[in-house]
Amino acid sequence: MNRNWTKVTKTDEGEFNDVTWKCEDQPELEGTLTEIKTGIGRHSQTIYVVETEDGDTFNVWETAVLKTLLKKSREGDYIRIVYLGKKSGKAGSTYKDFDVFIATGVVKEEAKAEVIEKPEPKVEKKEEPKQEVAATSDNEEEEVPF
After folding, report:
1. How are beta strands 19-20 and 57-61 bridged, if at all?
2. pLDDT at residue 2 in the model
Protein backbone atom coordinates (compact mmCIF):
# COMPACT_ATOMS: atom_id res chain seq x y z
CA MET A 1 0.00 0.00 0.00
CA ASN A 2 1.47 3.34 -1.09
CA ARG A 3 0.81 6.37 1.09
CA ASN A 4 1.70 10.02 0.74
CA TRP A 5 3.06 11.36 4.01
CA THR A 6 3.12 14.96 5.17
CA LYS A 7 5.12 15.93 8.22
CA VAL A 8 3.04 17.68 10.87
CA THR A 9 4.76 19.90 13.41
CA LYS A 10 3.44 21.42 16.59
CA THR A 11 3.82 25.10 17.51
CA ASP A 12 4.33 26.38 21.03
CA GLU A 13 0.63 27.21 21.25
CA GLY A 14 -0.31 23.59 20.58
CA GLU A 15 -1.84 24.22 17.15
CA PHE A 16 -0.83 22.05 14.23
CA ASN A 17 0.66 23.72 11.19
CA ASP A 18 -0.64 23.29 7.68
CA VAL A 19 1.81 23.04 4.82
CA THR A 20 4.63 25.59 4.82
CA TRP A 21 5.09 27.42 1.52
CA LYS A 22 8.42 26.51 -0.08
CA CYS A 23 9.18 29.44 -2.37
CA GLU A 24 12.01 27.66 -4.22
CA ASP A 25 9.61 24.89 -5.34
CA GLN A 26 6.59 27.13 -5.97
CA PRO A 27 7.84 30.68 -6.70
CA GLU A 28 4.37 32.24 -6.77
CA LEU A 29 1.63 32.02 -4.14
CA GLU A 30 -1.75 33.66 -4.65
CA GLY A 31 -4.76 33.57 -2.38
CA THR A 32 -6.64 35.07 0.54
CA LEU A 33 -4.67 36.07 3.62
CA THR A 34 -6.88 34.25 6.12
CA GLU A 35 -4.85 34.73 9.29
CA ILE A 36 -1.77 36.45 10.68
CA LYS A 37 -0.30 34.44 13.56
CA THR A 38 2.17 36.29 15.77
CA GLY A 39 4.48 35.12 18.53
CA ILE A 40 5.05 31.67 17.03
CA GLY A 41 7.97 29.57 18.20
CA ARG A 42 10.86 30.36 20.48
CA HIS A 43 11.85 33.37 18.36
CA SER A 44 8.31 34.81 18.43
CA GLN A 45 7.94 34.83 14.66
CA THR A 46 4.95 35.71 12.48
CA ILE A 47 3.20 33.35 10.08
CA TYR A 48 0.93 34.55 7.28
CA VAL A 49 -1.72 31.93 6.45
CA VAL A 50 -2.76 32.03 2.78
CA GLU A 51 -5.62 30.01 1.31
CA THR A 52 -5.52 29.49 -2.46
CA GLU A 53 -8.58 29.37 -4.70
CA ASP A 54 -8.14 25.57 -4.78
CA GLY A 55 -8.68 25.49 -1.01
CA ASP A 56 -5.06 24.65 -0.15
CA THR A 57 -3.68 26.44 2.90
CA PHE A 58 -0.05 27.50 3.19
CA ASN A 59 1.91 29.00 6.07
CA VAL A 60 4.30 31.73 4.97
CA TRP A 61 7.03 32.39 7.53
CA GLU A 62 7.91 36.05 7.85
CA THR A 63 11.28 37.28 6.62
CA ALA A 64 12.67 40.81 6.89
CA VAL A 65 11.62 41.48 3.29
CA LEU A 66 8.12 40.03 3.72
CA LYS A 67 7.66 41.92 6.99
CA THR A 68 8.18 45.20 5.15
CA LEU A 69 6.09 44.26 2.10
CA LEU A 70 3.16 42.71 4.00
CA LYS A 71 2.93 45.57 6.50
CA LYS A 72 -0.13 47.07 4.78
CA SER A 73 -1.97 43.79 4.23
CA ARG A 74 -4.84 42.71 6.45
CA GLU A 75 -6.69 39.46 7.04
CA GLY A 76 -9.14 39.00 4.20
CA ASP A 77 -6.90 40.65 1.57
CA TYR A 78 -6.29 38.78 -1.68
CA ILE A 79 -2.51 38.72 -2.15
CA ARG A 80 0.18 37.39 -4.47
CA ILE A 81 3.71 36.71 -3.26
CA VAL A 82 6.38 36.20 -5.92
CA TYR A 83 9.79 34.78 -5.00
CA LEU A 84 12.52 36.63 -6.96
CA GLY A 85 15.44 34.49 -5.84
CA LYS A 86 18.38 35.07 -3.53
CA LYS A 87 20.04 38.48 -3.53
CA SER A 88 23.24 39.79 -1.97
CA GLY A 89 22.87 42.36 0.77
CA LYS A 90 25.11 45.35 1.44
CA ALA A 91 27.07 43.44 4.07
CA GLY A 92 27.64 40.54 1.67
CA SER A 93 25.03 38.22 3.20
CA THR A 94 22.33 36.67 1.04
CA TYR A 95 18.59 36.97 1.54
CA LYS A 96 15.42 35.82 -0.22
CA ASP A 97 13.78 38.62 -2.19
CA PHE A 98 10.05 38.87 -2.93
CA ASP A 99 7.45 41.01 -4.63
CA VAL A 100 4.07 41.32 -2.93
CA PHE A 101 0.85 42.42 -4.61
CA ILE A 102 -2.45 43.20 -2.89
CA ALA A 103 -5.55 43.00 -5.08
CA THR A 104 -7.74 46.06 -5.07
CA GLY A 105 -11.43 45.95 -5.74
CA VAL A 106 -11.74 42.31 -4.69
CA VAL A 107 -14.77 41.67 -2.51
CA LYS A 108 -15.13 38.35 -0.74
CA GLU A 109 -18.43 36.52 -1.25
CA GLU A 110 -19.46 37.08 2.38
CA ALA A 111 -18.86 40.81 2.03
CA LYS A 112 -20.90 40.91 -1.20
CA ALA A 113 -23.81 39.24 0.60
CA GLU A 114 -23.63 41.79 3.40
CA VAL A 115 -23.71 44.66 0.93
CA ILE A 116 -26.66 43.22 -0.97
CA GLU A 117 -28.67 42.54 2.18
CA LYS A 118 -27.95 45.93 3.73
CA PRO A 119 -31.09 48.06 3.55
CA GLU A 120 -31.05 51.40 1.82
CA PRO A 121 -30.92 54.32 4.26
CA LYS A 122 -34.27 56.05 4.60
CA VAL A 123 -34.29 59.67 3.57
CA GLU A 124 -36.84 61.66 5.46
CA LYS A 125 -38.66 64.28 3.48
CA LYS A 126 -38.72 67.63 5.17
CA GLU A 127 -42.05 69.35 5.05
CA GLU A 128 -41.90 72.85 3.80
CA PRO A 129 -43.02 75.30 6.47
CA LYS A 130 -46.58 76.41 6.05
CA GLN A 131 -47.08 80.08 5.75
CA GLU A 132 -49.50 81.55 8.18
CA VAL A 133 -52.45 83.34 6.74
CA ALA A 134 -54.18 86.21 8.53
CA ALA A 135 -57.78 87.04 7.97
CA THR A 136 -58.64 90.56 6.83
CA SER A 137 -61.75 92.45 7.46
CA ASP A 138 -63.07 91.49 4.04
CA ASN A 139 -62.62 87.79 4.92
CA GLU A 140 -59.74 87.69 2.46
CA GLU A 141 -56.68 85.77 3.46
CA GLU A 142 -53.38 87.57 3.36
CA GLU A 143 -49.89 86.18 3.82
CA VAL A 144 -48.07 87.33 6.90
CA PRO A 145 -44.47 88.34 6.08
CA PHE A 146 -42.33 86.42 8.63
Report:
1. parallel
2. 72
